[in-house]
Amino acid sequence: MKMSKQFPLNALRVFEAAARLGSFTKAGNELGMTQTAVSYQIKLIEESVGEPLFLRRPRQIALTEVGQRLAPKVTEAFELMQEAVASARGDAASTLLISSTATFASQWLARHIGTFQLAQPNMAVRLSANDAMIDFSIEAVDVAIRSGLGVWPGLVSHRLMKVEFTPMLSPALASTIGGVNEPRDLLKLRIIDPQDRWWPLWFRAAGVRDADLDGRVPTRLGAQSFEAGAAIAGQGVAILTPQFYTDDVALGRLYQPFDLRGSDGHDYWLVYPHARRNVPKIRNFRDWILSEFNQDCGA
User: Which sequence ranges are marked TM in the entry (predicted)?
Assistant: First the structure.
């Protein structure tokens, strides 16, 4: 691949948009250009590179092998330039935008993020807490906390914590049936969200194979943190991640009747686009949160 000395930066911007969006038309709409102008800029960059970057098909384009190698590096380069300009300007682009599951946000991140802000006093933090899977290509998010197996194409992922689950309830509720002495005793009480996939896994591991959870009235509350609140209020037994509720156990608001914990392989992960792995604010947050979890900080 041969580069000319007069490298067309504007054409690179057009190439990045077309590669990211998979369409010359969409790239033109984003950049305020006609499709003809987009095609011209793509032709300029291909002439500079000396290789075709797109396969042109009827109503469809696809990156060539050279284009596939070039696209992520160009995206990363523009991200770094934007970050550098924002840092020099000292404006809102120095804000870190975090998307997190509601439970992780309320039970861990909200309790620790102040440490990060003390270490980065010039960086503002915005947190969006919901369980929806965000698309980094269309949403203004820098990093996300996801629950899953840790494999998402195009994203760097770092395991934060292994997720385990076990039944938890208030001591007062347990006393209403004379205590919870064996796993089957839990079935004497209201089960919060009996359709949660964790319940049958835990009961089977506990040797209870006839729990009949399907026959119970569904009570889906939308997030584990809400289920924990219902359990603290004595409204039933919730299946929770005990690492999040050590304070409630210490205060006597919840207790874990059995040592048995289950896992379905879905852990908590920090994720962000591979092309943005060297953006300073992302790197700083990654190093901080992995340090908090005592994990390897390598990208």
Answer: none
pLDDT 10s digits, 186-220 = 999 999 999 999 999 999 999 998 888 888 877 77
Residue 88 has pLDDT above 80, yes or no: no
* Three-state SS letters, the chain: CCCCCCCCHHHHHHHHHHHHHCCHHHHHHHHCCCHHHHHHHHHHHHHHHCCCCEEEECCEEEECHHHHHHHHHHHHHHHHHHHHHHHHHCCHHHCEEEEECHHHHHHHHHHHHHHHHHHCCCCCEEEEECCCCCCCCCCCCCEEEEEECCCCCCEEEEEEECCCEEEEECHHHHHCCCCCCCHHHHHHCCECCCCCCHHHHHHHHCCCCCCCHHHCCCCCCCCHHHHHHHHHCCCCEEEECHHHHHHHHHCCCCECCCCCCECCCCEEEEEEEHHHCCCHHHHHHHHHHHHHCCCCCCC
Q: Which domain holds residue 219?
A: 166-250
